[in-house]
Amino acid sequence: MKAIKHLALTLSIAAGAALPAHAAPAVAVKPTVILVHGAFADATSWNGVATKLRADGYSVIGAANPLRSVQGDAQVVANIVKSVQGPVVLVGHSYGGAVISAAAQGLPNVKSLVYVAAFAPEQGETALELSGRFPGGTLGSALAAPVALADGGKDFYIQQDKFHQQFAADLPKAQAELMAVSQRPIAEAALLEAARSPAWKTLPSYFVYGSGDKNIPAAALGFMAERAKSRKTVVIPGASHVVMTSHPNAVARLIEQAAEAK
């Protein structure tokens, strides 16, 4: 009997040591931010944004968007999201907005979506149709002759001598010229692919874009933000299509607001 009482006392002391009366509260985990570039760019276009987010304690992944098809590209991004433990904020630029709208479907750890000068298509809409629905876009006249693909499709590039004014007018010319050299082409099929039911209908969405965007007219971007019931929309006067490169702090600030929102 004494042995049993001694064992009970020992277990009671151990339990008390394991569960202190004033245990510290659990620290909330910051969401991982996944940045998805669009056409005619690559993941380095996010460098300024990533630098700010990392300095503020966020884990950041710059996804390599294949730019081949909306659903195929969305699956690539979805696979990255599934590999992350904990909440995720998905951020898309330009065509990347269509990709995150599809990628987030059915993924419970996606907390919110941030559209950076990006498409937020409704079911049945295409990027090409949305960009031409409102006046102000001049991308068509800036494109180079399509590059024929082995499968019968086409790749689109922006003419290098028009890249600065068309795509990145608010960046230094030398920087824009290097971006033109390293631009990633987009398949015509991706621009013509109709969206399926988008995740912005069920997830909190945020929008930021520039009034000087020549790829996707500001009127189109404003329309999509309003339709998606954007929780916060930031319009940067005069900013170009690569607003994340020319105004990284403003874009990072909105992403952090999306990450911190309850």
**How are helices and strands ordered from N to C?**
HEHEHEHEHHEEHHEHEHEHH
Distance between the termini: 55 Å
Low-confidence stretches: 1-21
The number of helical elements comes to 12
Strand content: 15-25%
Global morphology? globular
For this structure, what is the CATH homologous superfamily? Alpha/Beta hydrolase fold, catalytic domain
What structural category characterises the helix and strand content?
alpha/beta
What fold name stands as the CATH topology?
A: Rossmann fold
- Let me know the number of strands: 9
* Share in helix: 40-55%
Using only C-alpha atoms, the radius of gyration works out to 23 Å
The CATH C-level name is: Alpha Beta
Write the CATH architecture name.
3-Layer(aba) Sandwich
Q: Tell me about the largest β-sheet.
A: 6 strands, parallel
Integer tally of domains:
1
Question: What integer is the average pLDDT?
Answer: 92
The spatial strand order of the largest sheet comes to 2-1-3-4-8-9
Domain AB hydrolase-1: 33-253
Protein name: Alpha/beta hydrolase
Signal peptide: 1-23
InterPro entries: AB_hydrolase_1 (IPR000073), AB_hydrolase_fold (IPR029058), Sec-Metab_Biosynth_Hydrolase (IPR052897)
In short:
This protein has 262 residues and is an alpha/beta fold. The protein has one domain: Rossmann fold.
Structure characterization notes:
This protein has 262 residues and is α/β, with parallel strands linked by helices. The chain has one domain: Rossmann fold. The protein contains twelve helices and nine strands. It has helices at residues 2-18, 47-55, 70-82, 95-103, 127-133, 139-142, 160-167, 173-182, 188-192, 218-227, 243-246, 248-260; strands spanning 32-36, 60-63, 88-93, 110-116, 147-148, 154-156, 186-187, 205-210, 232-236. The strands form two sheets. The protein has a six-stranded parallel beta sheet, sandwiched between helices. A three-stranded antiparallel beta sheet has the order 5-6-7. Helix 2 packs across helix 12, helix 3 (70-82) crosses helix 4 and helix 7 packs across helix 8 (173-182). It is globular and about 55 Å long. It starts with a helix and ends with a helix.
